[in-house]
Amino acid sequence: MNVLRARFRTRLIIALLCLQANLSFAQSADSSLDVKELCKQVFCRTPSFTLQLNNKDVFEGAFETPLPVLINKKLISVFPGETVFIEASINNGAIRLEQAVSTNAHPERTLVFKFQQMDKKKDMLLEVENPFPEDIKFKMGYMQTNSSKIYATSSCPVSGKLKLFEHWPYPIYQLLITQAKVLSQSDKKVCN
Questions:
Q1: CA-based angle 99:100:101, to the nearest 5?
Q2: Position 147 in a domain
Q3: Which residue range(s) make up the domain with 175?
Q4: Cβ distance 158 to 131 under 8 Å?
Q5: Within a 10 A sphere around the Cβ of 122, how many other Cβ atoms?
Q6: Dihedral angle over CA of 170, 10, 110, 126, nearest 10
Q7: Which residues pair with 60 in a beta bridge?
Q8: Is 44 among the domain residues?
Q9: How many C-beta atoms lie closer than 10 Å to residue 50's C-beta?
Q10: How confident is the model at residue 30 (pLDDT cuts 50, 70, 90)?
Q11: Residue 50's beta-bridge partner residues?
Q12: What is the pLDDT of residue 36?
């Protein structure tokens, strides 16, 4: 079995995340210090994971410093093996992502994103749980093990008070979820 290992540079990942969300991130001589300061204010984690690439190759990833789960209340980052909890609210037909939390203490207002690789396969599965009565939708992107590029991917609406499952037939080391939206009666409820 071949094991490919990657230590991800926090500076690169944060820059890509902010670029994807059209956000600014304070730059200094020591970007890891900026992230540590940010993580004093928001929930962060230090991801590490193992992905099956094919029948004989494995990809192991680890980060040098903690990364925020929710950036500027707009962009959600999820790595394989993670279950991410985002407390949110809906007012006047708009969803507001309030904060990432370590546990689901308020299930009535917590979006749940569970991302994993399927057993003994390279396929990836995302489970999204919507606690609200309204249908919601997100835009998503992903990063593969062989590139630092962010690829757009389709997203299906998550019906009110239900779960949704999204599937990809290849390994993904990070999902990026953004542009949370409450669907109105006139919105098409299609995957795109």
A1: 115
A2: yes
A3: 2-182
A4: no
A5: 19
A6: 0
A7: 5, 50
A8: yes
A9: 14
A10: very low
A11: 60
A12: 78
- Would residue 10 count as lying in a domain? yes
- Please list the residues that pair with 115 across neighbouring strands: 126
Sheet with 57-63, side-by-side order of all strands: 2-8, 57-63, 48-52
Given a cut of 90, whether residue 8 has pLDDT beyond it is: no
pLDDT digit string (tens) for 157-190? 999 999 999 999 999 999 999 999 999 988 888 8
pLDDT value for 13? 56
Cα separation, 183 vs 192, whole angstroms? 14
Quick one: pLDDT at residue 9?
54
Both structure tokens of 58: 């494995």
- Residue 189 counted as domain residue: no
Residue 128 contacts by C-beta under 8 Å, 6 or more apart in sequence?
Answer: 111, 112, 113, 138, 158, 163, 164, 165, 166
- The count of domains in the chain is 1
